[in-house]
Amino acid sequence: MKIKFGSIEETIITRDEFPISKAREILKKETISILGYGVQGPGQSLNLRDNEFKVIVGQRKHSFSWDKALEDGWIEGKNLFSLEEASERGTILMYLLSDAGQISFWPTLSKYLTEGKSLYFSHGFGLTFRSQTKISPSKNIDIFLVAPKGSGTSLRRHFKQGKGINSSYAIYQDYSGNSLDKTLSIGIGIGSGYLFKTNFKNEVYSDLVGERGTLMGAIQGIFAAQYQILREKGHSPSESFNETVEELTQSLMPLISEKGMDWMYSNCSTTAQRGALDWWEKFRDATIPIFQELYHEVFSGNEAKRIIKANSDINYREKLQKELKNIKKSELWKVGSIIRNLRPEKKDS
After folding, report:
1. Treating both helix axes as pointing N-terminal to C-terminal, what angle do 331-341 and 217-232 enclose, rounded to 10 degrees?
2. Which residues contact 275 (CB under 8 A, 6 or more apart)?
3. Is there a contact between 168 and 197 (Cβ–Cβ < 8 Å)?
4. Which of 182, 196, 226, 265 counts the most CB atoms within 10 A of its CB?
5. What domains are defined for the chain?
6. Which candidate in 123, 158, 235, 296 is catalytic?
7. Which helix (H) or strand (E) holds 322?
8. Are residues 202 and 167 in contact, defined by beta-carbon separation less than 8 angstroms?
9. Pseudo-torsion of CA 243, 244, 247, 253, nearest 10°?
């Protein structure tokens, strides 16, 4: 359907226009091979399997993710194989390894990308920064992506609830002339709420900015700053956490999700309304320079260079765990753990 956003018109693909029955018919002769069972692999593969597509999984044997695939019901030798065998068996290869994993496995995968196969991504990183990743596919295959706007865990949870996470889609190379149908079929098959068009570069630029910005980096920074000030001014840990995190995530975010920020404002006290309206522009103006710097670092490739270098460090996992442990051990998130366990649903379960 055509949707107008002011003077800009976009085409949005919904399940009504592209039903699952149509997707099954288009892909009925395809073997969809999920390469990687980490962040997106489980959710996308299980949703496709439940939607009755022919799906196999490829994963490094005897890894944590291999064991997880077995726990999820994939059977070795039937629909669970090594990365190499799954790459050979599949006609649509869904490349869902981590960015670092994609770089490492690419010299092997490229041997299996024979004429007429399809290469699928859920992130534009590898091809957008191909001069650094060295991921350079041949011209005789289809290449496209579907990028769910949420984690694989959320994708699966929403699917099981009969809902869907919205996804972007893009076509990089249309060798067969049928890439659009394949792309939309997989997008509907993995449980997307609706699909909107992008390109590989825009997908990765917006994704990297979002992860470092409001989705993860900025929100953690704002949480930490507000909590710190409240504690320094003598507020208790419980009060500080509730006013910083709990009220936002448990009360206000659902209101914003339901009908938007203005509706959320109108359903808060007049004191809250006035303060929020007086202060939001100050926060915007203070953070715009940071977002400008962030976008430049992503667009220039500097952020990609840092990511690849960090992920290539043999001790990366160990260093990552230390960083995450430091966040977990901070007073803010120690308090958060206690508060979460006090929620009624926790006590009732």
Report:
1. 90
2. none
3. yes
4. 182
5. 2-199 (3.40.50.720), 210-348 (1.10.1040.10)
6. 123
7. helix 316-329
8. no
9. 150
Which of 145, 201, 203 lies closest to 173, judged by CA?
145
CB-based contacts of 264, cutoff 8 Å, min separation 6:
252, 255, 256
* pLDDT at residue 136 in the model: 94
Which tens digits make up the pLDDT trace of 290-313?
999 999 999 999 999 999 999 888
Which of 54-79 are b and which e, b meaning 16 or more Cβ less than 10 Å from the residue's Cβ? bbbbbbbeeeebbeebeebebeeeeb
Q: Which of 256, 227, 221 is nearest to 240 (CA)?
A: 227
- Return the sign of the alpha-carbon dihedral for residues 323, 325, 328, 332: negative
β-strands 80-81, 92-95: how paired? unpaired
* Amino acid at position 92, single letter: I
CB atoms within 10 A of CB 219: 13
Question: Tokens for 199?
Answer: 């390109």
Closest CA to 149 of 251, 19, 40, 245: 40
Token couple for 2:
């055509």
Q: Among this protein's residues, is 123 annotated catalytic?
A: yes
Q: pLDDT tens-digit profile of 224-266?
A: 999 999 999 999 999 999 999 999 999 899 889 889 999 989 8
* Distance separating alpha carbons of residues 234 and 277, to the nearest angstrom: 26
Q: Tokens 């976008």 belong to which residue?
A: 295
Residues facing 81 on adjacent strands: 58
Ranges of the chain whose pLDDT falls below 70: 345-349
